[in-house]
Amino acid sequence: xxxxxxxxxxxxxxxxxxxxxxxxxxxxxxxxxxxxxxxxxxxxxxxxxxxxxxxxxxxxxxxxxxxxxxxxxxxxxxxxxxxxxxxxxxxxxxxxxxxxxxxxxxxxxxxxxxxxxxxxxxxxxxxxxxxxxxxxxxxxxxxxxxxxxxxxxxxxxxxxxxxxxxxxxxxxxxxxxxxxxxxxxxxxxxxxxxxxxxxxxxxxxxxxxxxxxxxxxxxxxxxxxxxxxxxxxxxxxxxxxxxxxxxxxxxxxxxxxxxxxxxxxxxxxxxxxxxxxxxxxxxxxxxxxxxxxxxxxxxxxxxxxxxxxxxxxxxxxxxxxxxxxxxxxxxxxxxxxxxxxxxxxxxxxxxxxxxxxxxxxxxxxxxxxxxxxxxxxxxxxxxxxxxxxxxxxxxx
Length: 396
Fold this sequence. Notes:
The chain is an all-alpha fold.
């Protein structure tokens, strides 16, 4: 099988994955609109990679798909940003007019497409598909001026996309950082909500982009480089598969708060602001809450509940989630996540000393959802791994 045939086959698989994923995302979006931007992102990627398939199956659409590549390129960063914004929102995300500004540059790209479609069809095909610039010599000065204007504008738009992508990548990283801080104020286990795959995906895309840009520069300035098309299409397939799988698996981090009262959402709002300035919490009430919290952990052993959250704890001790969060942060000097895991680690230490249970069994028994999160919390608290702690405690 030739390299072009393999590349074509890989592109077909990528498009099939996108088609299936977009279908599922659109079905989900009827209940959770947050999946709409991700569907749009994948659809835009499909337009960008579809050229080999379009050339083979529908050559008459080649010019159209080549032209649509520009607005599609400008759709990907804002769509992915809106998806991240939605899954990290403390309230149910819905599309609105305020989001339209993110698609202004894509709209400009669409205007360029419309202008290009007004040119003679033979000229469009000669320039875009055949790469025959001599076709311009047989046209009027106005047509040549229009074509050169469109080419220059398109070139500037492609350069502008780099700035757009950089802006949204930075916004995504900042959003994820703030989001993880908020998660730890509400949940005792955050592995499923953190969305670490997004960070790894962006780093991978950035790495591929840098390699591609470096290859193009070297190819144009130094010497010709034969980039294997199969490798490029394989990398694209892996990335599309990753976005599809993890995007479908990822749920909004604060989904369980959507139907609750606004008290916990108010707590989240205060995390990045001046906290609790107008709170009525006094020292006596704070000490009372500390006593109830300690009783809930030491006697009721609520920390064993892997799904323990701030609203659950507030309901258990009959106190305001707002005041509990303030007490934890200002009186005890820790967030909800660290407070609960403090008791989990202490319970794990006891089992490591007195039982022969496996580390994984102990982690699950004391309330952790994953071995990795247990190791991280344990080493942060003790400075050693669970296995090292067991050896040292028994040796002493």
